[in-house]
Amino acid sequence: LEIMEYASTKANVHVLENPHRIRVNWGGFTMVNATLQMLKYATGHLPGTSALDFHKVVHLSHTTYPLASNTEIRHELAKYPLDANFFQVVMRPHRTPSWNYFVECDDQLHRIFHLPVPTNATAGYELFQSSQWFIMSREFAEYLAAARPGSFVYDFLPYAEHVVVADETFFGTVLRNTEFCTKHVNRNYLYLEFDRWESDVPVEERDSRKCMMKNANHCGRSPMHLTLQDAPMLELSDNLFARKFTEETLKDVVDDWRIERELDILDFSKDPSKRRPR
Questions:
Q1: What is the DSSP secondary structure assignment for residue 135, as one 8-state letter?
Q2: Which of 84, 148, 246, 274 has the most Cβ atoms closer than 10 angstroms to its Cβ?
Q3: How far is the C-alpha of 124 from the C-alpha of 137, rounded, in Å?
Q4: What is the helix (H) or strand (E) element at residue 245, kind and residue range?
């Protein structure tokens, strides 16, 4: 309710209403669905909505924070064509013997049976893994939101709905198997550091949501929270965003650092060497 009230006072803040607000489960297709609902809203494909005026969709999590000013972000992205799509994709087909069909219900994922991995030979396309955080062109957003019958995304959706951690497979696969592959920049300008694998944690302390395969030691992992010790790496990074932060570390790590940077940038015209490396 507080978010809706806040959004009502800001012309550039939009909050999806029911039934288009999606309850998200870790590893489930609900993460993809929530993102698609957002894209449908932005492109005017939800009932009662009209398309917003935008060039890019910058998909961020609530634990992500900008490392650069709005001006710097615009300047960096403007180095590329307007229809460029910034996705961090593993540039080899994803083929694994341990691939399973999952059903999402009761706020959990349930492994049902072995799921064949599509290939060019068997299905006419390949799976690709990618980060679920990206900077997308309006054209690609429109393609995903419309999901018109006969399009690759329309045909791929029924399969993707039963893939574990679908958000790390869906967007990269659609991007690499459509005409948008020629407009792909293989980075997403996001700095992160991954924590240990969940299988490295004692069994009694593991997050069961990250260990859903038949092999109990086949587990996933999540990015670690950045701390003050990571500030030098952020300074050297040429990324535009970073995650994961807590509210406490934002002040200690990023806000104070950005204030110092902004003071340096004021003298940029006199001493370009003071500007953060690009």
A1: E
A2: 84
A3: 25
A4: none
Angle at 150 between CA 147 and CA 153, to 5 degrees: 40
Q: What is the DSSP letter of 199?
A: G
What amino acid is encoded at 256 in this protein? Answer: D
d(CA 252, CA 72): 22
Both structure tokens of 269:
């015209």
pLDDT tens for the chain, 278 residues long, are 688 888 889 988 999 988 899 999 988 999 999 999 999 999 999 999 999 999 999 999 988 989 888 999 999 999 999 999 999 999 999 988 878 899 998 888 888 999 999 999 999 999 999 999 999 999 999 999 999 999 999 999 999 999 999 999 999 999 999 999 999 999 999 999 887 767 778 888 877 777 777 777 777 777 888 887 787 788 788 899 999 888 877 766 666 666 666 666 545 444 544 444 44
d(CA 162, CA 142): 24
Residue 78: strand pairing partners: none
Residue 229, sorted as left (phi over 0), alpha (psi -120 to 50) or beta, turns out to be: alpha
**Model pTM greater than 0.70?**
yes
**Collapsed DSSP state (helix, strand, coil) of residue 244:** coil
> Alpha-carbon distance 66 to 242, whole Å?
6
125: its two tokens: 């396309």
DSSP string, 66-118: ESS-HHHHHHHHTTS-TT-EE--B-SS----S--EEEEEETTEEEEEEE-PPP
**3-state secondary structure (DSSP) of residue 239:** coil
